Amino acid sequence: MVATNTDTELDKLAINTIRTLCIDAVQAANSGHPGTPMSMAPVVYTLWQEILRYDPTAPIWPDRDRFVLSVGHASTLLYSALHLTGVRSVNPDYEVLGDPAVSLDDLRHFRQLDSKCPGHPEYRWTAGVEATTGPLGTGAATSVGMAMAARWLAAYFNRPGFELFTYNTYVLCGDGDLMEGVAAEAASLAGHLKLANLCWIYDSNQISIEGSTELAFTEDVATRFAGHGWQVVRVQDANDTLAFARALSEFQQETVRPTLIIVDSHIGYGAPNKQGTASAHGEPLGEAEAAAAKRFYGWPEDEHFLVPDGVYEHFANGVGHRGRRLRAEWETLFERYRGEFPELAAQLDAMVRRQLPSGWDSGVQAYPPDAKGVATRSSSGEVLNAIAKNVPWLMGGSADLAPSTKTRLTFEGAGDFGADNHAGRNIHFGVREFLSAAVANGLALSKIRAYWSTFLIFSDFARGAIRLSALMELPVIHVFTHDSIGVGEDGPTHQPVEQLASLRAIPGLDVFRPCDANEVVETWRTVLPLRHEPAAIVLTRQNLPTLDRDKYGSAAGVASGAYVLADPPGGAEPEVIVIATGSEVHIAVQTYEQLTAEGARIRVVSMPCQELFDRQPEEYRRAVLPPHITERVAIEKASTLGWDRYTGFGGSIIGMHTFGASAPLKELQTRFGFTPENLTDVIRTHLAG
């Protein structure tokens, strides 16, 4: 699908409509970035009007091309395109509505409360926004997951004569994106995987907020990407729509390499003889400069948010007509597919609605009591494999640590995703934590049930993408092992202390730290059905006993976030409540047994997920932590930050206040107070008080 003539007067009028809408939106908000939208309007126009397989009336059509605005600060460029092409809104139940995704009034209220045009594009807030990109580089990285998803979906669902998934992913990125390390991670992996369905359009304008990119960015981008295994095409003027269309044609003809199209542009009006300044990149133009820009475009200076006659119709006859035809053809094909392959069609229906197949957890079994037990990373790997057999679109991998995180799918047919096997479900991300999480987001945006893993300490590298999974409400599963000072001799650099508190601070992220194999089982049972919430599962390297659930509370309590694991005999009221997570639950249980034998009345609460517990009805929370029982102790091998809301000011918290040390685990536990003896002493002070 190659562009035709995009050099008519109507084409120019449409391009300048995009530009002036962007100018007016930024000026009305007195906030935003007008430079890139002005200079890249011809590029976005050509891509949308001439190339994209996209139906504005069906913006969640599964085989649509994806357009990702990695330069999220240029959001008015996307909003103008969504408005002019007539993209329809979509509700949370995936129903396409009749109202526009972006109205002219939304553009008038750019960056204002409740407008569908926030400062940066937000997934789930504005239909047509394929990803929340936000921080530079992240959108480009996320696109790799989207391109991988297209390959996997084609390998799994397509059949001869039924090419259901053929879409491409296009990204608009800039100098700032390519300065970020995650973009290099992404480019490297995309080249390695030979994702020929991925096209990055690089706005090479040589301007950043501080000024010329000569200040800090003088590398040969073309050579770098060629080294990554990409096809590199150059367009010397962003206004040359025919040259850009030819570059897109070269991308479409490439079958092995991803493509980088370098587009030379000029921040400002978008013309070499009207180059703006850095202020045009990061600030509104101002009334005088906005008027001058409109004069340059031949636009009425006193008109605001003007869409001239014929522009809407022009887009409707271009992307609208083409997209509607392609989508109708696809739907006809899918109905025939449903008749030929009803089981696969039903799976696709479930997948796109983020539903699970019936019997998805049928292979998961409870673990018998075992004093020696098993590391929760190991039981997690077993549960993951049992579930993945029943959920074909559950896939993921690790940042080069699968043997340690136990996240490899080992059953027959799982396979490795690679350049020569797009059906594989094990992903080798390499030592690229940020990219791993960003790719998982991209997979989830394509409705694949995605997970990735690393050691908990390295979650810091991926925090930006973890945060975006919560912001986008994507059910990505972040698996972290080596969860505490329990990594022992590796020392403080590898001993996570503040990471649990940091992850718990992310709104919308459920953080689970199960205490034994059966809590692991219930954690996965709780996490998998989530449709709009990401989860972090935090697991041990060391073995933990498997508790006797006939003696202690049922692990099904995980679904409530916290539950009573042990209580005083005979229904007596507790004197002290001990709250613990993960491996420290067993310290609490040992202490409970000793003090109960001495006649003390102790309640042990396992709290694998604070976020879930906080969402429970008040009646349940009060039943687990009765407000009148104020003698409380919390114990966790991590920062104490946040635990006071459960212990109260009069409670005690046994936790970490330093970065740990390098020593065998038993010595570390003694040094930092994670022993039954120390917990017993602390509880006795409360019993005496």
Structure description:
This protein is an alpha/beta fold and 689 residues long. The protein folds into three domains: 9-328, Rossmann fold (3-Layer(aba) Sandwich); 370-544, Thiamin diphosphate (ThDP)-binding fold, Pyr/PP domains (Rossmann fold); 558-688, Rossmann fold. 40% of the residues lie in helices and 15% in strands. The strands form six sheets. The protein has a six-stranded parallel beta sheet with strand order 12-11-13-14-16-15. The termini are far apart. Mean pLDDT is 94; it is low at 1-5 and 271-280.
Largest sheet: 6 strands, parallel
Low-confidence stretches: 1-5, 271-280
Helix-strand makeup class: alpha/beta
Number of domains: 3
Cα distance, first to last residue?
79 Å
Instruction: Tell me what portion of residues adopts beta-strand conformation.
Output: 15-25%
Gist of the model:
The chain has 689 residues and is α/β, with parallel strands linked by helices. The protein has 25 helices and 22 strands.
Give me the secondary-structure topology.
Blueprint: H1 9-29, H2 35-51, E1 66-69, H3 75-85, E2 88-90, E3 96-100, H4 104-108, H5 138-157, E4 169-174, H6 175-179, H7 181-193, E5 198-204, E6 207-208, E7 211-212, H8 221-227, E8 231-235, H9 241-253, E9 259-264, H10 278-282, H11 287-296, H12 311-340, H13 342-352, E10 370-375, H14 376-388, E11 394-398, H15 402-405, E12 426-428, H16 433-445, E13 449-455, H17 463-471, E14 477-481, H18 499-504, E15 510-512, H19 517-527, E16 535-538, E17 543-546, E18 563-566, E19 576-580, H20 584-597, E20 602-606, H21 610-614, H22 618-624, E21 632-639, H23 644-647, E22 652-656, H24 665-672, H25 676-688
Parallel strand pairs: 1-4, 4-5, 5-9, 8-9, 11-12, 11-13, 13-14, 14-16, 15-16, 19-20, 19-21, 21-22
Antiparallel strand pairs: 2-3, 6-7, 10-17, 18-20
